[in-house]
Amino acid sequence: xxxxxxxxxxxxxxxxxxxxxxxxxxxxxxxxxxxxxxxxxxxxxxxxxxxxxxxxxxxxxxxxxxxxxxxxxxxxxxxxxxxxxxxxxxxxxxxxxxxxxxxxxxxxxxxxxxxxxxxxxxxxxxxxxxxxxxxxxxxxxxxxxxxxxxxxxxxxxxxxxxxxxxxxxxxxxxxxxxxxxxxxxxxxxxxxxxxxxxxxxxxxxxxxxxxxxxxxxxxxxxxxxxxxxxxxxxxxxxxxxxxxxxxxxxxxxxxxxxxxxxxxxxxxxxxxxxxxxxxxxxxxxxxxxxxxxxxxxxxxxxxxxxxxxxxxxxxxxxxxxxxxxxxxxxxxxxxxxxxxxxxxxxxxxxxxxxxxxxxxxxxxxxxxxxxxxxxxxxxxxxxxxxxxxxxxxxxxxxxxxxxxxxxxxxxxxxxxxxxxxxxxxxxxxxxxxxxxxxxxxxxxxxxxxxxxxxxxxxxxxxxxxxxxxxxxxxxxxxxxxxxxxxxxxxxxxxxxxxxxxxxxxxxxxxxxxxxxxxxxxxxxxxx
Length: 527
Known about the structure:
62% of the residues lie in helices and 6% in strands. The chain has helices at 17-28, 31-50, 56-65, 69-77, 86-98, 102-125, 130-142, 155-173, 178-195, 203-217, 222-230, 239-249, 260-270, 274-291, 303-313, 315-326, 337-352, 357-386, 395-398, 401-407, 418-427, 430-433, 442-449, 453-461, 472-478, 495-501, and strands spanning 413-416, 436-440, 469-471, 481-487, 505-512, 515-521.
């Protein structure tokens, strides 16, 4: 029987019963659960992607990727967006290779998430029975972080780079393939920063873990420290854009500092995992009396790895505290905390249950079942709203009653809020699309919404992207009669109270769920 470093299993000449056969198969054929989960994960991602409309943040990545490559670089070089160009460059390359469709567009980001999951498996399997590694691998998919596996944004790529960095550090620490592991550690950390600047918080857990390792060994591993210290040098490429973006986007940002981000981060990430963890616990307690299979002589993971897992799980705390200096933070900036949580959970659960392999199986079954159920529910709900699979994606959106109200008129269409405008301008039928504008104003946005991030985004995007963004005052002065389309999930849009304040007459033409269409007439002399 194959063995796991640090773990000694009781030999069994003839596996007795189904449980022992399953345990033997998992231990000796490790590729089966890994390949099975990978295929299932990508299937769920493909189905979710096929039924999911792009929204504002995804279009922020997608639209630059549709530009000629030199314009794409100019878009980010001029700091027209606060993010790095990496996600758009990856998407640009993907569209050249795979075409432009909802599944292919999201594939690179799903693969990044999967790379993180496989890296977690590899990290844990080096120290614990493989069943715990499988559970740790599945855990992120069952968490709230899975949402970002099918988002055309930088986060899936960043998660993949973070996962690779953990494995490379472990390989180098164990003295395995150091000639490859140390350069790969440097490259994976540099690549993570190229995906998102807040990947810099990865250096806290890695630095503390390497410090613990140095103290334990009583000597410094110079090559590993060199990789950690030198990898942030990649930021020199982005310094001009960082400085420009900070000056433009930091004031009045929606992502303001606050300790409330800490609870929000853990609730968002971990609340979806409560049900499968409880189900796994129930399943284990039903199986344990008869089928318990502890792993004797279980060695604890190295101190440095426990420090790494614990501090990586705490990165939302570090991010929220640092936000008072940096001026901005939201929980998704440190999504890689889920890797630390997954590893720490596996380490702690294995120690508490003395390596009982049945516990790992019970948790894995509950997690993968929950992931499948959650994915099926997401796809079913999305199909009911967006179409996909059986009907063209966005057909229900384009054929909705509120869209018919827009099509039934030849008037200009002002869309609000900013997050709705990009989606409407992208998915509306051609006769409507050409009439959609965003009428923005920084002062009015601050007055009524207390944030002007949307105004900042759209006015800057319009310099290179094919979107129609105009000054609010100029628009109402030039159009006494127009339609206003509002999507009210998060905000009614500051334009509505601003128009009312100016004495405009708003007549409701259609209300379909959260979508409102108004006929707006400006009063003479009041615009």
